[in-house]
Amino acid sequence: MILYYLYIKIRTKTFFLLLIFFSLLFQAVGQNEHGNNKNTKPEVFSSGFIDVMNNGQVNASARMIKLYIGDTTNFSIPISFYGGVSNNMLQTSGTSKSNDILVNQFINPLSGLVNISTENYIYFKKSEKISKLSFLYQIGVRILNGSRVGLVSDPLTGKPVNFLNTFTANGLMLETGAWEKGNTSNVGIFRMALRYHLCHSSSKQIREFLPNIKTNGIYSGYSLGFGIDINNVVNIKTIYYKYFKAPEIDYGFPIYQFSFNYHLQK
What we know:
Helix content is about 15%, strand content about 50%.
């Protein structure tokens, strides 16, 4: 809530620049997921995921490339490029509003037709122990899509509209071990994360396809997620999302996300 009040008090661009600055500052002084950043080669189509939301929406996305900008031996910034699609193919009702999809896209930091972001997690303390606490962040820009609402006689009604959206998701993550019974030689990771989500789109752009909506283009909320990643066994996660203020678009409560991830071998 504190971040939200700061956000509405200052200009949008200034707020996101401050978030980027402090996130990079954390990374500069902390231990990130790549240690000393020795692995600075681009990762092309190295991972992806399929998300299934409890309202029937399906998101499929692949990380097209992940690269690092900076010094190969010291400080560097990870940049990820995602590309994906969303569909309501699993919804049982054919009368659902087409723009309901935006409710999930606004709060999900990995949504969008194109998603460009910097993301990382930084451990608070260097340790060889399995259980660790870290700060995680993701800040970026993406292209979302909606459908124009209007009279049936209007030829533009129902036409897809793409618009720009800036976003951030920051929080804390706890890691610990996970393994199959009787197989401690293959120890994976269990993660639990609590994040604050904030995004912004131009209200003018949104009103171009939702003319009757009353919005400032700012949406915020939080999420609580759990995930298990055990090599050659399982890599899944589930996330619960909650808006601080209900979006103007009608949708059902609550919002759950089930993800199936994949990682290609190098």
